[in-house]
Amino acid sequence: MHQDQRRLLGDFVRAHRERLQPAASGGRRRTPGLRREEVAQLGGISTTWYTWLEQGRDIALSPHALARLAGALRLSRPERAYLFELAGRRDPAAPAPAAGADAPPSLLAAVERLSDPAYGLDPLWNACCWNAAAGRLFEAWLRGPERNLLRWIFLDEAARRLIDGFEDRARRVLAEFRADFSRSLNDPRMRALVEDLRAASPLFAAFWDEQGVLAREGGLRRFHHPQDGTVEFDQFTYVPADRPDCKLVLLARR
To answer: For 238, which DSSP code?
Structure first.
């Protein structure tokens, strides 16, 4: 963690310590809010460790110590997430993604109002909603028995026939998925998905072992549709503010 990040973290926890109201006491207090030793006692952490944290020193930050600190500071869920983001640690109490969860209303509303192919992905990359144009383009996937994008790409021959430059696209999709995988290591369903695909698809196993990681990128997408022939789109991916673990994928016709 670089110095500016440690300073931001120290400023954040200090501000939230100072906003806490102490229990009634008989003497006057020189500082607003709780004292450092009081926060440390509430969180079951060392006063020295907490003091150094506020001072922006380079110290070890275990997820469980941060979790106890979040409780002592009475952080809200967004504040707690911000604390762990600043510290560069994964919250041990973060909920696991819900496989096959219903699409959030914001995602449904966006998909339904788009005329070009658009679909939503849940945290495990299952299609959770799509519009008619996407249903036509990806009929083999979205109207078939397997709604998981990775399972469809690597296990269904229809994907190989539809997607232009199949192996390059499959490699890039998997590298994009790995970025999400790293944020869900505590979810057994995510690990099970990877292990199942490693066993079922030699191509998946080979690409997975390459350890590629990519941000979700847009660009030209070309498909060889059985009825419409070769069609081209520009792909864009959006993240709903109310469900950042989901994605909206839009294919804008060229």
So the answer is: E
How long, in residues, is the chain? 254
Distance CA 156, CA 145 (A): 11
Could you give the CA distance from residue 124 to residue 148 in angstroms, rounded to a whole number? 8
Query: What is the rounded average pLDDT of the residues 131-140?
Result: 95
CATH 1.10.260.40 residue spans of the chain? 3-87
Enumerate long-range contacts of 227-232, CB under 8 Å, 24 or more apart: 228/136, 230/164, 231/137
Q: How does pLDDT run across 55-109, given as a tens digit for each residue?
A: 999 999 999 999 999 999 999 988 998 898 888 888 888 765 554 457 889 999 9
What CATH code is assigned to 3-87?
1.10.260.40
When the candidates are 3.30.450.180, 3.90.110.10, 3.10.290.10, 2.40.40.10, the CATH number that belongs to 105-253 is 3.30.450.180
* Cβ–Cβ under 8 Å, residues 89 and 80: no
